[in-house]
Design a protein that fits this description.
This protein is mainly alpha-helical and 518 residues long. It contains 23 helices and six strands. Strand 5 and strand 6 form a beta hairpin.
Length: 518
Amino acid sequence: MKSKKIYTILLVVLIILQVLVNVYVGTKKEYYHMDEAYSYGLMNYDKLNITDNEDFLNKWHNKEYYIDYFALNSDEMSDWGAVYENQKNDVHPPLYYLLLRISSLFTIDSFSKWTGIGLNIIILAISSILMYIICNKIFKSNVWALIVTAINAFSFSTLENAIYIRMYALSTLNMLLFTYMTLRVYEKKELNIKDMILTGLVLILGGLTHYYFFIYVVGVYLCLLYKSIREKNYKFIIRYTIMAAISAVIYLLIFPYSISHIFFGYRGAGSASGTTALEIIKSIGIYLYIVNKNIFNYILPLYLIVILGIFIVCKIMKKKNNEEKQKASIVNYILVGTLLYFVLIAILTPYKELRYVLPICPLIIICTVYYSKLLLQKVLNNKTVMIIISICFAVIICTPALTKNKLEFTYSQHNGIAERIEKLDAPILYVFNTQNNRFLDDIYLFTLVDESYILNANDFSEEKIDEIFENKDLKNGLVVICNEDINQEELKQTIYNELHLNMEYTQRMNACDIYYAK
Protein backbone atom coordinates (compact mmCIF):
# COMPACT_ATOMS: atom_id res chain seq x y z
CA MET A 1 0.00 0.00 0.00
CA LYS A 2 2.86 2.36 0.83
CA SER A 3 4.54 1.60 -2.51
CA LYS A 4 1.27 2.18 -4.38
CA LYS A 5 0.85 5.55 -2.64
CA ILE A 6 4.39 6.60 -3.62
CA TYR A 7 3.81 5.77 -7.30
CA THR A 8 0.46 7.57 -7.22
CA ILE A 9 2.23 10.68 -5.93
CA LEU A 10 4.89 10.35 -8.63
CA LEU A 11 2.18 10.03 -11.29
CA VAL A 12 0.46 13.17 -9.97
CA VAL A 13 3.78 15.06 -10.09
CA LEU A 14 4.35 13.82 -13.63
CA ILE A 15 0.91 15.01 -14.76
CA ILE A 16 1.41 18.42 -13.10
CA LEU A 17 4.70 18.78 -14.98
CA GLN A 18 2.97 17.71 -18.19
CA VAL A 19 0.26 20.33 -17.71
CA LEU A 20 2.82 23.06 -17.00
CA VAL A 21 4.82 22.16 -20.11
CA ASN A 22 1.64 22.12 -22.21
CA VAL A 23 0.61 25.53 -20.89
CA TYR A 24 4.06 26.90 -21.70
CA VAL A 25 3.89 25.49 -25.23
CA GLY A 26 0.37 26.94 -25.55
CA THR A 27 1.71 30.42 -24.86
CA LYS A 28 3.97 30.01 -27.91
CA LYS A 29 1.10 29.37 -30.31
CA GLU A 30 1.04 32.33 -32.70
CA TYR A 31 -1.45 31.37 -35.37
CA TYR A 32 -4.18 28.92 -36.40
CA HIS A 33 -4.75 26.41 -39.16
CA MET A 34 -8.06 26.83 -40.99
CA ASP A 35 -9.32 23.58 -39.44
CA GLU A 36 -8.79 25.06 -35.99
CA ALA A 37 -10.92 28.04 -37.03
CA TYR A 38 -13.47 25.52 -38.26
CA SER A 39 -13.50 23.91 -34.80
CA TYR A 40 -14.78 27.13 -33.26
CA GLY A 41 -17.23 27.92 -36.04
CA LEU A 42 -18.66 24.40 -36.22
CA MET A 43 -19.55 24.35 -32.53
CA ASN A 44 -21.52 27.60 -32.54
CA TYR A 45 -22.05 29.31 -35.92
CA ASP A 46 -25.23 28.96 -37.96
CA LYS A 47 -23.27 28.00 -41.09
CA LEU A 48 -20.28 25.80 -41.92
CA ASN A 49 -18.18 28.73 -43.09
CA ILE A 50 -18.38 32.48 -42.61
CA THR A 51 -17.80 32.86 -46.36
CA ASP A 52 -21.30 31.42 -46.87
CA ASN A 53 -22.81 34.65 -45.51
CA GLU A 54 -24.63 36.71 -48.12
CA ASP A 55 -22.99 39.89 -46.85
CA PHE A 56 -19.43 38.47 -46.79
CA LEU A 57 -18.14 39.75 -50.13
CA ASN A 58 -17.66 43.37 -51.17
CA LYS A 59 -18.50 44.76 -47.74
CA TRP A 60 -16.72 46.61 -44.97
CA HIS A 61 -16.76 44.62 -41.70
CA ASN A 62 -15.61 45.29 -38.15
CA LYS A 63 -13.71 42.82 -35.98
CA GLU A 64 -16.89 41.73 -34.18
CA TYR A 65 -18.16 40.28 -37.47
CA TYR A 66 -15.32 37.73 -37.40
CA ILE A 67 -15.15 37.23 -33.64
CA ASP A 68 -18.79 36.15 -33.91
CA TYR A 69 -17.62 33.16 -35.96
CA PHE A 70 -15.23 32.05 -33.20
CA ALA A 71 -17.15 33.05 -30.09
CA LEU A 72 -20.08 31.55 -28.25
CA ASN A 73 -22.26 34.58 -27.72
CA SER A 74 -24.62 35.25 -24.81
CA ASP A 75 -27.69 34.91 -27.01
CA GLU A 76 -26.46 31.49 -28.31
CA MET A 77 -25.95 29.78 -24.97
CA SER A 78 -29.26 27.94 -25.01
CA ASP A 79 -29.09 27.00 -28.69
CA TRP A 80 -27.06 23.80 -29.05
CA GLY A 81 -28.35 22.92 -32.50
CA ALA A 82 -25.23 24.08 -34.35
CA VAL A 83 -23.14 21.34 -32.71
CA TYR A 84 -25.21 18.65 -34.40
CA GLU A 85 -26.42 20.43 -37.52
CA ASN A 86 -22.99 21.62 -38.66
CA GLN A 87 -21.45 18.18 -38.25
CA LYS A 88 -24.30 16.64 -40.21
CA ASN A 89 -23.39 18.97 -43.09
CA ASP A 90 -19.64 18.52 -42.63
CA VAL A 91 -17.58 15.29 -42.56
CA HIS A 92 -16.96 14.74 -38.85
CA PRO A 93 -19.00 13.39 -35.90
CA PRO A 94 -20.12 15.84 -33.17
CA LEU A 95 -18.70 14.81 -29.77
CA TYR A 96 -15.55 16.96 -29.81
CA TYR A 97 -17.52 20.03 -30.85
CA LEU A 98 -19.93 19.45 -28.00
CA LEU A 99 -17.04 19.46 -25.51
CA LEU A 100 -15.48 22.54 -27.14
CA ARG A 101 -18.80 24.35 -26.84
CA ILE A 102 -18.97 23.44 -23.14
CA SER A 103 -15.41 24.72 -22.74
CA SER A 104 -16.47 27.95 -24.52
CA LEU A 105 -18.92 28.65 -21.70
CA PHE A 106 -15.89 30.05 -19.85
CA THR A 107 -15.18 32.59 -22.62
CA ILE A 108 -18.64 33.92 -23.52
CA ASP A 109 -18.66 36.67 -26.19
CA SER A 110 -14.93 36.40 -26.80
CA PHE A 111 -12.37 34.24 -28.59
CA SER A 112 -9.44 32.61 -26.81
CA LYS A 113 -7.04 29.90 -27.91
CA TRP A 114 -7.18 28.61 -24.33
CA THR A 115 -10.75 27.46 -24.84
CA GLY A 116 -9.42 24.74 -27.13
CA ILE A 117 -5.94 24.27 -25.69
CA GLY A 118 -7.30 24.06 -22.14
CA LEU A 119 -9.73 21.34 -23.20
CA ASN A 120 -6.89 19.42 -24.85
CA ILE A 121 -4.68 19.73 -21.77
CA ILE A 122 -7.40 18.24 -19.56
CA ILE A 123 -8.02 15.40 -22.03
CA LEU A 124 -4.31 14.60 -22.30
CA ALA A 125 -3.89 14.63 -18.51
CA ILE A 126 -6.65 12.00 -18.31
CA SER A 127 -4.89 10.12 -21.12
CA SER A 128 -1.69 10.03 -19.06
CA ILE A 129 -3.56 8.44 -16.14
CA LEU A 130 -4.98 5.86 -18.52
CA MET A 131 -1.57 5.35 -20.13
CA TYR A 132 -0.09 4.58 -16.71
CA ILE A 133 -2.85 2.06 -15.93
CA ILE A 134 -2.45 0.36 -19.32
CA CYS A 135 1.34 0.19 -19.05
CA ASN A 136 1.07 -1.15 -15.51
CA LYS A 137 -1.02 -4.03 -16.83
CA ILE A 138 1.26 -4.65 -19.81
CA PHE A 139 4.66 -4.29 -18.14
CA LYS A 140 3.47 -5.48 -14.72
CA SER A 141 5.66 -2.81 -13.14
CA ASN A 142 4.94 0.61 -11.64
CA VAL A 143 8.40 1.83 -12.63
CA TRP A 144 8.03 0.81 -16.27
CA ALA A 145 4.53 2.32 -16.32
CA LEU A 146 5.88 5.66 -15.09
CA ILE A 147 8.75 5.62 -17.59
CA VAL A 148 6.54 4.91 -20.61
CA THR A 149 3.93 7.45 -19.45
CA ALA A 150 6.65 10.10 -19.09
CA ILE A 151 8.04 9.31 -22.55
CA ASN A 152 4.61 9.84 -24.04
CA ALA A 153 3.78 12.92 -21.93
CA PHE A 154 6.85 14.85 -23.10
CA SER A 155 7.09 13.59 -26.67
CA PHE A 156 6.69 16.12 -29.48
CA SER A 157 3.57 14.29 -30.60
CA THR A 158 1.80 14.92 -27.28
CA LEU A 159 2.90 18.55 -27.19
CA GLU A 160 1.54 19.02 -30.71
CA ASN A 161 -1.67 17.26 -29.68
CA ALA A 162 -2.10 19.71 -26.81
CA ILE A 163 -1.93 22.85 -28.95
CA TYR A 164 -3.74 21.70 -32.10
CA ILE A 165 -7.36 22.70 -31.57
CA ARG A 166 -9.07 19.74 -33.18
CA MET A 167 -10.55 16.41 -32.10
CA TYR A 168 -7.26 14.47 -32.13
CA ALA A 169 -6.53 14.71 -28.39
CA LEU A 170 -10.00 13.31 -27.68
CA SER A 171 -9.45 10.60 -30.31
CA THR A 172 -6.17 9.72 -28.55
CA LEU A 173 -8.06 9.28 -25.29
CA ASN A 174 -10.61 7.05 -27.05
CA MET A 175 -7.83 4.85 -28.46
CA LEU A 176 -6.43 4.39 -24.96
CA LEU A 177 -9.89 3.74 -23.49
CA PHE A 178 -10.53 0.99 -26.04
CA THR A 179 -7.06 -0.45 -25.41
CA TYR A 180 -7.78 -0.51 -21.68
CA MET A 181 -11.12 -2.25 -22.20
CA THR A 182 -9.40 -4.80 -24.43
CA LEU A 183 -6.88 -5.46 -21.65
CA ARG A 184 -9.76 -6.01 -19.22
CA VAL A 185 -11.47 -8.64 -21.34
CA TYR A 186 -8.36 -10.26 -22.86
CA GLU A 187 -7.78 -12.88 -20.17
CA LYS A 188 -11.45 -13.58 -19.55
CA LYS A 189 -13.14 -16.73 -20.79
CA GLU A 190 -16.50 -15.03 -20.68
CA LEU A 191 -17.64 -11.44 -21.12
CA ASN A 192 -19.72 -10.09 -18.24
CA ILE A 193 -22.44 -7.48 -18.65
CA LYS A 194 -20.34 -4.71 -17.09
CA ASP A 195 -17.49 -5.17 -19.57
CA MET A 196 -19.93 -5.36 -22.49
CA ILE A 197 -21.63 -2.11 -21.47
CA LEU A 198 -18.35 -0.27 -20.85
CA THR A 199 -16.77 -1.49 -24.10
CA GLY A 200 -19.91 -0.58 -26.02
CA LEU A 201 -19.88 2.90 -24.50
CA VAL A 202 -16.24 3.36 -25.53
CA LEU A 203 -17.07 2.25 -29.09
CA ILE A 204 -19.89 4.79 -29.30
CA LEU A 205 -17.81 7.66 -27.86
CA GLY A 206 -14.86 6.81 -30.10
CA GLY A 207 -17.06 6.76 -33.20
CA LEU A 208 -18.68 10.05 -32.21
CA THR A 209 -15.20 11.62 -32.08
CA HIS A 210 -13.50 10.44 -35.27
CA TYR A 211 -14.28 7.79 -37.87
CA TYR A 212 -10.69 6.55 -38.14
CA PHE A 213 -11.11 5.19 -34.61
CA PHE A 214 -12.99 2.25 -36.13
CA ILE A 215 -9.88 1.16 -38.06
CA TYR A 216 -8.03 0.44 -34.82
CA VAL A 217 -11.11 -1.29 -33.39
CA VAL A 218 -11.36 -3.60 -36.42
CA GLY A 219 -7.68 -4.55 -36.13
CA VAL A 220 -8.01 -5.47 -32.45
CA TYR A 221 -11.34 -7.23 -33.04
CA LEU A 222 -9.76 -9.47 -35.71
CA CYS A 223 -7.08 -10.48 -33.19
CA LEU A 224 -9.74 -11.29 -30.56
CA LEU A 225 -11.62 -13.29 -33.20
CA TYR A 226 -8.48 -15.26 -34.04
CA LYS A 227 -7.75 -15.91 -30.36
CA SER A 228 -11.31 -17.08 -29.66
CA ILE A 229 -11.38 -19.44 -32.65
CA ARG A 230 -7.97 -20.86 -31.76
CA GLU A 231 -9.09 -21.47 -28.18
CA LYS A 232 -12.58 -22.58 -29.32
CA ASN A 233 -14.04 -19.95 -27.03
CA TYR A 234 -16.97 -19.15 -29.31
CA LYS A 235 -19.14 -17.82 -26.51
CA PHE A 236 -16.71 -14.96 -25.90
CA ILE A 237 -16.55 -13.77 -29.49
CA ILE A 238 -20.30 -14.18 -30.03
CA ARG A 239 -21.02 -11.96 -27.02
CA TYR A 240 -18.36 -9.48 -28.12
CA THR A 241 -19.82 -9.33 -31.63
CA ILE A 242 -23.36 -8.88 -30.31
CA MET A 243 -22.12 -6.08 -28.05
CA ALA A 244 -20.40 -4.39 -31.02
CA ALA A 245 -23.54 -4.74 -33.17
CA ILE A 246 -25.78 -3.23 -30.48
CA SER A 247 -23.28 -0.37 -30.06
CA ALA A 248 -23.34 0.22 -33.81
CA VAL A 249 -27.14 0.43 -33.82
CA ILE A 250 -27.14 2.91 -30.92
CA TYR A 251 -24.38 4.88 -32.61
CA LEU A 252 -26.31 5.13 -35.87
CA LEU A 253 -29.45 6.18 -34.01
CA ILE A 254 -27.43 9.03 -32.47
CA PHE A 255 -25.65 10.07 -35.66
CA PRO A 256 -27.01 8.33 -38.79
CA TYR A 257 -25.15 10.74 -41.07
CA SER A 258 -21.93 8.84 -40.36
CA ILE A 259 -22.95 6.35 -43.07
CA SER A 260 -22.75 8.95 -45.82
CA HIS A 261 -19.63 10.51 -44.30
CA ILE A 262 -17.73 7.21 -44.07
CA PHE A 263 -18.73 5.53 -47.32
CA PHE A 264 -19.53 8.41 -49.64
CA GLY A 265 -17.78 11.49 -48.25
CA TYR A 266 -14.61 12.98 -49.69
CA ARG A 267 -12.79 12.17 -46.41
CA GLY A 268 -14.15 8.63 -46.14
CA ALA A 269 -13.80 5.52 -48.28
CA GLY A 270 -14.34 7.60 -51.39
CA SER A 271 -11.03 9.38 -50.85
CA ALA A 272 -9.13 6.14 -51.53
CA SER A 273 -10.46 5.68 -55.08
CA GLY A 274 -7.78 5.61 -57.74
CA THR A 275 -4.91 5.21 -55.25
CA THR A 276 -2.03 3.24 -56.78
CA ALA A 277 0.40 0.89 -55.03
CA LEU A 278 3.25 3.35 -55.62
CA GLU A 279 1.24 6.19 -54.07
CA ILE A 280 0.45 4.01 -51.04
CA ILE A 281 4.14 3.16 -50.55
CA LYS A 282 5.04 6.83 -50.86
CA SER A 283 2.35 7.80 -48.33
CA ILE A 284 3.57 5.18 -45.85
CA GLY A 285 7.08 6.56 -46.25
CA ILE A 286 5.84 10.10 -45.52
CA TYR A 287 4.05 8.95 -42.37
CA LEU A 288 7.13 7.02 -41.22
CA TYR A 289 9.06 10.27 -41.57
CA ILE A 290 6.36 12.13 -39.59
CA VAL A 291 6.48 9.54 -36.78
CA ASN A 292 10.28 9.64 -36.75
CA LYS A 293 10.19 13.43 -36.47
CA ASN A 294 7.49 13.83 -33.85
CA ILE A 295 8.08 10.87 -31.54
CA PHE A 296 11.78 10.16 -32.05
CA ASN A 297 13.04 13.60 -33.08
CA TYR A 298 14.61 12.15 -36.25
CA ILE A 299 16.74 9.53 -34.49
CA LEU A 300 14.57 6.38 -34.70
CA PRO A 301 17.18 4.70 -36.98
CA LEU A 302 19.89 5.45 -34.40
CA TYR A 303 17.66 4.14 -31.60
CA LEU A 304 17.10 0.86 -33.47
CA ILE A 305 20.82 0.55 -34.21
CA VAL A 306 21.64 1.02 -30.51
CA ILE A 307 19.06 -1.55 -29.33
CA LEU A 308 20.01 -4.14 -31.96
CA GLY A 309 23.70 -3.41 -31.48
CA ILE A 310 23.53 -4.05 -27.72
CA PHE A 311 21.58 -7.27 -28.33
CA ILE A 312 24.05 -8.55 -30.97
CA VAL A 313 27.10 -7.71 -28.84
CA CYS A 314 25.61 -9.47 -25.80
CA LYS A 315 24.72 -12.47 -27.96
CA ILE A 316 28.28 -12.68 -29.26
CA MET A 317 29.51 -12.51 -25.68
CA LYS A 318 27.03 -15.35 -24.97
CA LYS A 319 25.23 -13.39 -22.30
CA LYS A 320 21.89 -14.76 -21.22
CA ASN A 321 19.27 -13.45 -18.84
CA ASN A 322 18.03 -16.12 -16.45
CA GLU A 323 15.27 -13.96 -15.06
CA GLU A 324 11.66 -14.74 -15.93
CA LYS A 325 10.90 -13.12 -19.26
CA GLN A 326 7.70 -11.42 -20.34
CA LYS A 327 6.03 -12.75 -23.46
CA ALA A 328 4.46 -10.45 -26.00
CA SER A 329 0.73 -11.11 -25.75
CA ILE A 330 -1.90 -8.38 -25.80
CA VAL A 331 0.74 -6.00 -27.17
CA ASN A 332 0.61 -8.01 -30.40
CA TYR A 333 -3.05 -7.05 -30.69
CA ILE A 334 -2.24 -3.39 -30.05
CA LEU A 335 0.45 -3.62 -32.72
CA VAL A 336 -1.90 -5.15 -35.30
CA GLY A 337 -4.55 -2.46 -34.68
CA THR A 338 -1.92 0.27 -34.81
CA LEU A 339 -0.35 -0.99 -38.03
CA LEU A 340 -3.76 -1.37 -39.70
CA TYR A 341 -4.63 2.21 -38.68
CA PHE A 342 -1.25 3.47 -39.92
CA VAL A 343 -1.52 1.82 -43.35
CA LEU A 344 -5.15 2.75 -43.96
CA ILE A 345 -4.73 6.42 -43.07
CA ALA A 346 -1.80 6.47 -45.49
CA ILE A 347 -4.32 5.38 -48.13
CA LEU A 348 -7.32 7.43 -46.98
CA THR A 349 -6.04 10.80 -45.78
CA PRO A 350 -6.13 13.57 -48.39
CA TYR A 351 -3.18 15.34 -46.74
CA LYS A 352 -0.19 13.51 -45.29
CA GLU A 353 0.09 15.35 -41.99
CA LEU A 354 0.96 14.74 -38.36
CA ARG A 355 -2.59 15.25 -37.06
CA TYR A 356 -3.83 11.98 -38.54
CA VAL A 357 -1.28 9.84 -36.65
CA LEU A 358 -1.56 11.72 -33.33
CA PRO A 359 -4.18 9.30 -31.89
CA ILE A 360 -1.87 6.28 -32.26
CA CYS A 361 1.35 7.93 -31.09
CA PRO A 362 0.96 6.63 -27.48
CA LEU A 363 0.36 3.14 -28.90
CA ILE A 364 3.49 3.41 -31.05
CA ILE A 365 5.47 4.38 -27.94
CA ILE A 366 4.06 1.44 -25.95
CA CYS A 367 4.93 -1.01 -28.74
CA THR A 368 8.42 0.46 -29.30
CA VAL A 369 9.37 0.28 -25.61
CA TYR A 370 7.77 -3.12 -25.11
CA TYR A 371 9.44 -4.89 -28.03
CA SER A 372 12.78 -3.20 -27.25
CA LYS A 373 12.47 -4.51 -23.70
CA LEU A 374 11.45 -7.95 -24.94
CA LEU A 375 14.54 -8.18 -27.15
CA LEU A 376 17.07 -6.85 -24.63
CA GLN A 377 15.74 -9.01 -21.80
CA LYS A 378 16.95 -12.07 -23.67
CA VAL A 379 20.51 -11.01 -22.84
CA LEU A 380 20.28 -8.47 -19.99
CA ASN A 381 18.47 -8.20 -16.68
CA ASN A 382 15.40 -6.00 -16.23
CA LYS A 383 17.20 -3.20 -14.36
CA THR A 384 19.88 -2.84 -17.04
CA VAL A 385 17.27 -2.85 -19.81
CA MET A 386 15.31 -0.16 -17.96
CA ILE A 387 18.40 2.05 -17.70
CA ILE A 388 19.30 1.61 -21.39
CA ILE A 389 15.80 2.38 -22.71
CA SER A 390 15.35 5.29 -20.29
CA ILE A 391 18.63 6.86 -21.40
CA CYS A 392 17.74 6.38 -25.07
CA PHE A 393 14.40 8.13 -24.72
CA ALA A 394 15.83 10.85 -22.48
CA VAL A 395 18.24 11.63 -25.33
CA ILE A 396 15.36 11.53 -27.83
CA ILE A 397 13.26 13.97 -25.76
CA CYS A 398 16.19 16.35 -25.29
CA THR A 399 17.34 16.17 -28.93
CA PRO A 400 15.35 19.27 -30.12
CA ALA A 401 17.71 21.44 -28.08
CA LEU A 402 20.45 20.39 -30.54
CA THR A 403 18.53 19.82 -33.79
CA LYS A 404 16.24 22.86 -33.39
CA ASN A 405 13.29 20.67 -34.25
CA LYS A 406 10.27 22.99 -33.83
CA LEU A 407 6.67 22.32 -32.97
CA GLU A 408 4.56 22.60 -36.10
CA PHE A 409 1.31 23.76 -34.52
CA THR A 410 2.75 26.85 -32.82
CA TYR A 411 3.07 28.29 -36.36
CA SER A 412 6.14 30.22 -35.30
CA GLN A 413 7.03 30.66 -38.99
CA HIS A 414 4.45 33.44 -39.13
CA ASN A 415 6.82 35.57 -37.04
CA GLY A 416 4.31 37.50 -34.97
CA ILE A 417 2.37 38.73 -38.01
CA ALA A 418 -0.87 38.95 -36.00
CA GLU A 419 0.73 41.18 -33.37
CA ARG A 420 2.27 43.44 -36.01
CA ILE A 421 -1.01 43.88 -37.88
CA GLU A 422 -2.83 44.66 -34.65
CA LYS A 423 -0.27 47.35 -33.79
CA LEU A 424 -0.51 48.96 -37.24
CA ASP A 425 -4.17 49.81 -36.59
CA ALA A 426 -4.68 50.01 -40.36
CA PRO A 427 -7.65 48.67 -42.33
CA ILE A 428 -7.31 45.41 -44.29
CA LEU A 429 -8.15 44.88 -47.94
CA TYR A 430 -8.50 41.17 -48.70
CA VAL A 431 -8.57 40.35 -52.41
CA PHE A 432 -10.44 37.07 -52.34
CA ASN A 433 -10.30 34.37 -55.01
CA THR A 434 -13.57 32.50 -54.54
CA GLN A 435 -12.16 29.52 -56.46
CA ASN A 436 -9.56 28.96 -53.75
CA ASN A 437 -11.49 29.41 -50.54
CA ARG A 438 -9.04 29.13 -47.67
CA PHE A 439 -10.18 32.30 -45.94
CA LEU A 440 -10.33 30.55 -42.57
CA ASP A 441 -6.54 30.14 -42.72
CA ASP A 442 -6.32 33.90 -42.14
CA ILE A 443 -9.58 34.82 -40.43
CA TYR A 444 -7.76 35.38 -37.14
CA LEU A 445 -6.10 38.52 -38.55
CA PHE A 446 -9.52 40.04 -39.17
CA THR A 447 -10.48 39.69 -35.49
CA LEU A 448 -7.69 42.15 -34.66
CA VAL A 449 -8.54 45.21 -36.80
CA ASP A 450 -11.46 47.61 -36.69
CA GLU A 451 -12.09 47.74 -40.44
CA SER A 452 -11.65 45.20 -43.22
CA TYR A 453 -13.01 44.80 -46.73
CA ILE A 454 -13.41 41.50 -48.58
CA LEU A 455 -13.12 42.19 -52.31
CA ASN A 456 -14.20 39.51 -54.75
CA ALA A 457 -11.23 39.20 -57.12
CA ASN A 458 -13.64 39.07 -60.05
CA ASP A 459 -14.80 42.61 -59.19
CA PHE A 460 -11.31 44.07 -58.93
CA SER A 461 -10.78 47.24 -60.96
CA GLU A 462 -9.47 50.79 -60.58
CA GLU A 463 -13.02 52.05 -60.27
CA LYS A 464 -13.78 49.53 -57.54
CA ILE A 465 -10.71 50.54 -55.55
CA ASP A 466 -11.80 54.19 -55.79
CA GLU A 467 -15.28 53.27 -54.61
CA ILE A 468 -14.07 51.15 -51.68
CA PHE A 469 -11.72 53.76 -50.24
CA GLU A 470 -13.75 56.89 -50.97
CA ASN A 471 -13.63 59.04 -47.83
CA LYS A 472 -11.59 56.38 -45.97
CA ASP A 473 -8.83 57.55 -43.64
CA LEU A 474 -5.61 55.76 -44.62
CA LYS A 475 -3.24 57.75 -42.43
CA ASN A 476 -1.96 54.50 -40.87
CA GLY A 477 -1.58 52.88 -44.27
CA LEU A 478 -3.33 49.79 -45.55
CA VAL A 479 -2.78 46.05 -45.08
CA VAL A 480 -3.34 44.23 -48.38
CA ILE A 481 -3.86 40.47 -48.39
CA CYS A 482 -3.72 38.71 -51.74
CA ASN A 483 -5.38 35.35 -52.03
CA GLU A 484 -3.87 32.69 -54.35
CA ASP A 485 -3.87 33.26 -58.13
CA ILE A 486 -4.22 37.04 -57.88
CA ASN A 487 -2.26 39.23 -60.30
CA GLN A 488 -0.24 40.95 -57.59
CA GLU A 489 1.70 43.24 -59.93
CA GLU A 490 -1.51 44.64 -61.35
CA LEU A 491 -2.86 45.07 -57.82
CA LYS A 492 0.28 46.93 -56.71
CA GLN A 493 0.07 49.30 -59.65
CA THR A 494 -3.62 49.97 -59.05
CA ILE A 495 -3.11 50.68 -55.34
CA TYR A 496 -0.33 53.09 -56.24
CA ASN A 497 -2.30 54.83 -59.00
CA GLU A 498 -5.55 55.22 -57.09
CA LEU A 499 -4.45 55.52 -53.47
CA HIS A 500 -0.84 56.72 -53.89
CA LEU A 501 0.42 53.96 -51.61
CA ASN A 502 3.42 51.70 -52.18
CA MET A 503 2.87 48.03 -51.34
CA GLU A 504 5.78 46.46 -49.43
CA TYR A 505 5.94 42.69 -49.12
CA THR A 506 5.52 41.53 -45.52
CA GLN A 507 4.76 37.83 -45.14
CA ARG A 508 3.88 34.66 -47.00
CA MET A 509 1.05 32.75 -45.32
CA ASN A 510 -0.43 29.33 -46.05
CA ALA A 511 -2.69 30.50 -48.87
CA CYS A 512 -1.96 34.20 -49.37
CA ASP A 513 0.63 36.98 -49.39
CA ILE A 514 0.50 39.97 -47.05
CA TYR A 515 1.63 43.49 -47.99
CA TYR A 516 1.73 46.75 -46.10
CA ALA A 517 0.85 49.77 -48.24
CA LYS A 518 1.94 53.20 -47.05
